[in-house]
Specification:
homodimer; 139 residues; mainly alpha; Arc Repressor Mutant, subunit A; two-stranded antiparallel ribbon; 8 helices; 2 strands; 58% helix; globular
């Protein structure tokens, strides 16, 4: 299936490429849930704090899989159930998520746990290493 | 004028807050043009490589100004002309732009100048300091 985003890019700028892939209000929340929240299934994403609509979720999951940010496998114990997981390209979005979180925390009233922010600021490398290790363990 | 984004946030997560502000395909391209490209006017943004539509550009400029990412001043020599500039909150998006650029450069075929990528990777602090200095000089 070729989708809209298979069209030629608007420009060759890497920022533009990134925004054509994840520049919307939902994609990086799904990446967040996979990366930090432990959600793996359609149902778990639907239950997220931002109340994503089913059609939007289905669209974003298909797009994220198509562009290689996540992959899906059938649950061996229940073939009807699909489990999603980040690819290497998906886990590599961690620094983008960190900077967006830190930027919003500096300029807006939000509810990020202080320990998490401190770790992102002062122990970024450790934080990234830990994320990658958790992610490899799930492979 | 109260706009859509004045509504309560979907959640208190800082990532969600960031995406409600700049989670779209255009806003960060405008920030890029102000930060790195030297564009200051509506006409200059319109001429950008991604061919933004006039109505989308007008909408994004108004939204970015409302949420405090950019400000506008009338050109003293031509009062009909408006100049845009980043605020401190806007220039503080530089690390987000850097990570998006680096992520896309690692995983997609793009046309980023190698020297720019090298500076972002190996001399990030110097790069950020230079951006902030240029920005202060324009104040």
């Amino acid at each position: 299936m070729r989708r809209k985003n298979s069209r030629p890019r608007r420009s060759e700028c890497p920022l533009n490429a990134a925004l054509e892939m994840v520049g919307d209000r939902w994609s990086l929340l799904i990446v967040r849930d996979l990366m930090l929240g432990g959600q793996r299934t359609y149902k778990a994403f639907l239950a997220g704090g931002e109340r994503i609509a089913t059609n939007v979720l289905a669209d974003r999951l298909a797009k994220l899989e198509e562009i290689g940010i996540l992959g899906s496998v059938r649950d061996p114990s229940d073939r009807r159930r699909i489990h999603y997981k980040l690819t290497a390209k998906g886990i590599d979005l961690a620094p983008v998520l960190i900077e967006l979180v830190l930027w919003a925390s500096r300029h807006e009233r939000t509810a990020a746990p202080k320990e998490l922010l401190d770790e992102m600021v002062h122990h970024r490398r450790r934080f990234l290493t830990r994320l990658k290790r958790q992610w490899s363990a799930m492979e």
